[in-house]
Design a protein that fits this description.
This protein is of the alpha/beta class. It is about 30% helix and about 25% strand.
C-alpha cells in the first residue's frame, strides 16, 4: 500500500490540535487532522462550555434563593429539559463549524483514531500515512475504575446529556468534575452522594477553604463519604447498589445512577505509541521544553496529553502555537508558562493561583499568610452570600503576592486579578494602590492583602 504524505499530521481536534493545524496550513504546509470523536474537542463539545451553560441556571437559582424574603418572592425551580435544550444551542453546531473551518484552511480530515506503525508512519481509516511531523493532542479521558460492575458506571459525557434527572446520584471521586456536578444536581433537587478516598475532596486546593466548601455543600443535601473506596456496583431491577469499604468496614447504598468522576488520564491507549517509539508516563507524552517527544523528535505533544504542564484549556492554545512555531520555522521555541489560575465552579467558586501555603513556606524564608472570613463584607451581605473566605500569601521580604486562594461568589473572576498581580510581581502596596471600581468583587482584593 502506498502511503499518503503530509508535512504535519495532527491527532486530536481540540483547541491545541486546531491551533497547530490551522497555523501550519496558513504557513503553506500540507496538513491533516484526525479525531475519533466529534470535531472541536472536549471543552467545547462535552466539557467546560456545556458545563458552564448548565451552571448558569443554578447560579440564578442560588442568587434568588439567597435573596428570597428580602426582595425576591415566589417559587423558582430548574426545568432540566429546557436547560438541556438551551445547552445544545451551544454544542450542536461545534463539530460542523470546526470541520468547515479546517476544510476551508485546506486541511484533510480523518474521523478515526490513528495507530503508529513506526516513527513517522500511521494507519488511519485503512490508509497508510507518512508525515514529517506528527502532533499528538488527544487530551484526557476518564480513568478506568477497576471494580466489579464498572460497566454500569456513567461518565461526565452522560451527565451533561441527561434527559431527566433521577432522584439519587452517586459520584465516585471528589475532584473538579464530581464536585461541580454534585452542586448542579443538588440544586436541581437530586439527592447526591460523593464517595472519595481522601480526607477531603479537591486535592490540590487549599484545604482550609475546601473544609468550608464541604461544610456548605452539606447544607445543600450533599452527602460525603470520605476515606472510602468503591469496590463494586450491582445492577438491581430499577436501581444500582454501590458497595464501598471504609477502613475495615464494608457498606453499600442504593442509587439511580453512578458516575465515575475519579479523575482523567491521557488519552493514549488507541495510538500504539510503542510502535512509534514515543515514550510516555502516567502524566502523558514525555516532552522536552520544546514540547517535542524525548524519544522521537518527529513527534510533538501539546495540550492536556503532554506531561509538561497543567491540563487547562488556556494553556493548550498557547502550547499549540509553540508547536506550530517549532514545526514551521524549524526553531526551538520554549513554552513560556505564566502563573495560571484554576477554578472549581461549585457555588461558591473555589479558586486558586500561585503557591499553596505549604509550597510558599518551602520556597521563601518568611511567608505572610493573610486569611479570613469575608462573609460580613458589603459584597457578601448585599448578596446574602453564606460563604466568602480568602487566603493570600506574601513573600515577607519583598511584599510580593505569591499565592491567592478564594472561596466565594464570583471567585472564578476575582482570581484573575491575583493572577495578573503574581505574573507582574506586584506587591501588597501595588494592589492596594490600584483604584478598582467600587463596590465590586475585585475591589475586595485590596482588603484581602
Amino acid at each position: 500500500m502506498e502511503a499518503k504524505k503530509f508535512n504535519v499530521f495532527v491527532i486530536g481536534s481540540g483547541i491545541a490540535g486546531q491551533t497547530v493545524a490551522t497555523s501550519c496550513a496558513e504557513a503553506g504546509l500540507k496538513v491533516a487532522i484526525a479525531d475519533k470523536r466529534a470535531f472541536g474537542g472536549t471543552c467545547a463539545n462535552r466539557g467546560c462550555d456545556p458545563k458552564k451553560v448548565l451552571l448558569a441556571a443554578t447560579e440564578a437559582l442560588q442568587q434568588t434563593a439567597q435573596l428570597k424574603g428580602i426582595g425576591i418572592e415566589g417559587k423558582i425551580e430548574i426545568n432540566w429539559k429546557k436547560l438541556q435544550k438551551f445547552k445544545r444551542t451551544f454544542t450542536k453546531s461545534v463539530p460542523k463549524a470546526t470541520e468547515k473551518k479546517l476544510l476551508e484552511a485546506g486541511i484533510t480530515l480523518y474521523h478515526q483514531s490513528p495507530k503508529f506503525l513506526d516513527r513517522n508512519t500511521l494507519s488511519v481509516e485503512g490508509k497508510m500515512i507518512k508525515a514529517d511531523h506528527i502532533v499528538i493532542a488527544t487530551g484526557l479521558e476518564p480513568v478506568n475504575l477497576p471494580i466489579n460492575g464498572s460497566k454500569h458506571l456513567k461518565t461526565s459525557d452522560d451527565f451533561l446529556n441527561l434527559k431527566t434527572l433521577p432522584e439519587k446520584l452517586v459520584f465516585i471521586g471528589g475532584g473538579y468534575v464530581g464536585m461541580e456536578f454534585a452542586h448542579i444536581a443538588a440544586r436541581a433537587g437530586v439527592k447526591v452522594t460523593v464517595i472519595d478516598s481522601g480526607d477531603l475532596p479537591l486535592k490540590g486546593f487549599d484545604q482550609d477553604l475546601v473544609e468550608r466548601l464541604v461544610a456548605y455543600s452539606k447544607t445543600l443535601g450533599i452527602e460525603f463519604i470520605m476515606n472510602a473506596k468503591a469496590s463494586a456496583i450491582k445492577k438491581l431491577k430499577k436501581n444500582y447498589k454501590v458497595f464501598y469499604e471504609q477502613g475495615d468496614k464494608k457498606h453499600h447504598l442504593k442509587t439511580a445512577m453512578v458516575f465515575n468522576t475519579a479523575g482523567r488520564v491521557p488519552a493514549l491507549k488507541a495510538l500504539e505509541l510503542e510502535k512509534g517509539r514515543v515514550d510516555f508516563n502516567a502524566n502523558g507524552i514525555e516532552v522536552n521544553t520544546f514540547l517535542q517527544s524525548k524519544s522521537n523528535d518527529l513527534v510533538y505533544a501539546c495540550g492536556d496529553v503532554a506531561d509538561s504542564n497543567l491540563p487547562l484549556t488556556p494553556l493548550s492554545g498557547r502550547e499549540g502555537y509553540v508547536v506550530a512555531e517549532n514545526i514551521i520555522n524549524n526553531s526551538k521555541k520554549r513554552i513560556d508558562v505564566p502563573v495560571i489560575p484554576s477554578t472549581v465552579f461549585t457555588l461558591p467558586n473555589l479558586a486558586s493561583v500561585g503557591y499553596s501555603e505549604e509550597e510558599a513556606k518551602k520556597r521563601y524564608k518568611n511567608v505572610v499568610v493573610k486569611s479570613g472570613d469575608a462573609s460580613s463584607w458589603f459584597n457578601a451581605k448585599r448578596w446574602n452570600a453564606p460563604v466568602y473566605a480568602y487566603k493570600i500569601l506574601l513573600n515577607e521580604r519583598t511584599g510580593e503576592i505569591v499565592g491567592a486562594h478564594l472561596l466565594g461568589p464570583d471567585a472564578g473572576e476575582t482570581i484573575n486579578t491575583f493572577a495578573l498581580a503574581i505574573n507582574h510581581k506586584m506587591t501588597e502596596d501595588d494592589l492596594q494602590g490600584t483604584i478598582f471600581s467600587y463596590p465590586s468583587w475585585v475591589y475586595d482584593t485590596k482588603s484581602m492583602v
